[in-house]
Design a protein that fits this description.
CATH architecture of the largest domain: Orthogonal Bundle
GO biological process, one term: DNA-templated transcription initiation
CATH class of the largest domain: Mainly Alpha
Number of strands: 0
GO molecular function: DNA binding; sigma factor activity
Pfam families: Sigma70_r2, Sigma70_r4_2
Number of helices: 7
Family: Belongs to the sigma-70 factor family. ECF subfamily.
Radius of gyration: 37 Å
Protein name: RNA polymerase sigma-70 factor, ECF subfamily
Order of helices and strands: HHHHHHH
Shape: rod-shaped
CATH topology of the largest domain: Rna Polymerase Sigma Factor, Chain: A
Number of domains: 2
Distance between the termini: 57 Å
Helix content: over 70%
């Protein structure tokens, strides 16, 4: 692909710079191509992109070859530098777009993974709640799954809110013991 692009660029440079202009372009190339490559490479840190920058720069120079003096080294190198900057910007935009796509896909994959893990954890928790004595299991479900307040639970059960908090504390302690036992049993397997 790059060789095809280079061949097209050289063909264009040859077409533009006929006769005397072509000789001048060849002299400019032989005088400055290494310096231009160095400037481009120092910006891009990529051999192939630096070569592309040099060739693109010479196409730009070929368009203005009659107005450029062979002693305009600073001007010629600034063309190479600016071309390298342009190529670097295009590359970083492309890379950042790819990174965004990867992040979106990665975030989505993590999110799906988290959902599956959360569902599995929730299922385990519900099974353990079912194993609790009825008074504790019902209280945990009503408090944390159905989000009833202590006052609502007290009215429903005909007990004081303090008594509700005490029973919830005992139920949570019992549930925690059951979950810890289950974890220890799975660790030994």
């Amino acid at each position: 692909m790059n060789k095809l692009i280079q061949a097209e660029r050289l063909a264009k440079a040859e077409t533009i710079g006929k006769g005397r202009s072509q000789n001048k372009l060849e002299r400019l190339y032989s005088l400055y191509n290494k310096d231009m490559f160095y400037v481009a490479y120092s910006r891009l840190k990529d051999y192939q992109l630096a070569q592309d920058a040099v060739h693109t720069s010479f196409i730009k120079i070929a368009d203005r070859v009659d107005t450029i003096d062979e002693k305009d080294r600073a001007y010629i190198l600034s063309i190479a530098k600016n071309t390298a900057i342009d190529i670097g910007r295009k590359r970083s935009r492309r890379d950042s777009s790819l990174d965004e796509i990867e992040n979106l896909v990665g975030d989505e994959a993590v999110s799906i993974e988290d959902d599956i893990i959360n569902r599995e954890m929730f299922d385990i928790l519900l099974k353990k709640i079912d194993e609790l004595p009825n008074a504790y299991g019902d209280l945990i479900l009503l408090k944390y799954i159905y989000a009833l307040s202590d006052q609502e639970l007290a009215e429903m059960l005909g007990i004081s809110p303090e008594n509700v908090r005490m029973r919830i504390s005992r139920a949570r302690k019992k549930l925690k013991e059951m979950l810890t036992e289950g974890k220890e049993a799975s660790d030994h397997e």
